[in-house]
Amino acid sequence: PSVFSAIEMAPRDPILGITEAFNADTNPAKINLGVGVYYDDNGKVPLLKCVEKAEAILIEQHAPRTYLPIEGLAAYDKAVQELVFGADSAVIQEKRAVTVQALGGTGALKIGADFLKRFSPDSEVYISNPSWENHRALFESAGFKVNNYAYYDETTHGVNFPAMLAALKAMPRGAIVVLHACCHNPTGADLTQAQWDDVIAAVVAGGLVPFLDMAYQGFGAGIAEDGAVVRRFAATGVALLVSNSFSKSFSLYGERVGALSVVAASADEAARLLSQLKRVVRTNYSNPPIHGGKVIATALSTPELRQMWEDELAGMRVRIKEMRETFVQKLKAKAPGHDFDFVREQVGMFSYSGLTKEQVGKLREQSIYAVDTGRICVAALNSKNIDVVVDAIAKVL
Ligand code: PMP
């Protein structure tokens, strides 16, 4: 027998499983609300103009494809810091923040997890209940025990904040707490600024290690608004990790563009931290790919392209909000006995719609695909498919 003969089949990824079923469906009117991707009103993944222009500039340069430094392109890392912490941030000026380019937000989380495991091996990790489905697997694969903290409240479709705060206060010192900086995936339920005040105070008082995951900066209230919580954490002076992703905000999913930033207590500590982050990268994939990083560094540092990006990102943000509003109004007309107003309050690409697993199953019979948990991607709705979706939902309620 082969050395691999005893290997079992790994469980299927639940979200990719939906896409497989969707792809196999021969109904031409099928609709996939299970994805985590932004589609425009024509149902297409956009290629942003700022990306096209940046690529045109790069092609003209005919630059050789050398290796990037282990920590990635310097201009990219600098642009990330300014975006995440704010250009005037003290942690940048005092050289207390270090940033490494990463393979998407996922890669950033993984570098952070491996780094933390090396220096804080006995800490446990806490993620929201529910959270992005890869958070648990990722931290477990880095060797951590992963626990949930209370977050979503099914009855209000919002955050059960008292329970969340109590959970934070009960965590042991040194615990690593993964927080969604904005646009919570999968629920769409975010904290208010006043609730963040309490979270920050609890994290500081409890000696917790905050790991902010920001995969959707610009999809909530705006680029600076969504990043505000990172700045507020940075201002407290606690050790802080931030993973960010440009997959959605630049519609560059397949380029794998993200970064991990870590805030240290001093410039000296930061330099030592960076050297250790580089070790993690070096032993995993040596250095990151060049193209996506250059596109983003070019777009963010060229004023004309930067403005273009901010406008295009605002366009995506506004379209999602309009879809939320239309969804709520149309459902009100079609299913007057049911309250979907909470969908308007949710933020980002996703909504925990409140649909049950059974209802999701019935939608699938009509070739409309959502996640069993009831998560729908609002960014997959458009002016052409929304009536079909709303009619189908009204039928299964
Ligand atoms: N964190 C969260 C909360 C996410 O939803 C995602 C997926 N978009 C990621 C991280 C990973 O991002 P990326 O696709 O850039 O790896």
Automatic annotation (TrEMBL):
Question: Keywords on this record?
Answer: Aminotransferase, Pyridoxal phosphate, Transferase
Record-listed E.C. numbers:
2.6.1.-
Superkingdom, taxonomy of origin:
Bacteria
| Entry GO CC | cytosol
The Aminotransferase class I/classII large domain sits at 30-393
What does the entry give for GO biological process?
Answer: L-phenylalanine biosynthetic process from chorismate via phenylpyruvate
Establish whether keyword Transferase is in the entry: yes
Query: What PROSITE patterns does the entry give?
Result: AA_TRANSFER_CLASS_1
Annotated TM spans: none
Q: Name one GO molecular function term.
A: identical protein binding
A Pfam family (short name) is Aminotran_1_2
Requisite cofactors: pyridoxal 5'-phosphate
Name the SUPFAM superfamilies on file.
Answer: PLP-dependent transferases (SSF53383)
- InterPro entries in the record: Aminotransferase_I/II_large (IPR004839), Asp_trans (IPR000796), NHTrfase_class1_PyrdxlP-BS (IPR004838), PyrdxlP-dep_Trfase (IPR015424), PyrdxlP-dep_Trfase_major (IPR015421), PyrdxlP-dep_Trfase_small (IPR015422)
Task: Please report which protein family the annotation says this sequence is part of.
Answer: Belongs to the class-I pyridoxal-phosphate-dependent aminotransferase family.
How this chain assembles, per its entry, is: Homodimer.
Identify the NCBIfam families for this entry.
Answer: PRK09257.1 (NF006719)
Q: Which PANTHER family match?
A: AROMATIC-AMINO-ACID AMINOTRANSFERASE, ASPARTATE AMINOTRANSFERASE
Q: What is this protein called in UniProt?
A: Aminotransferase
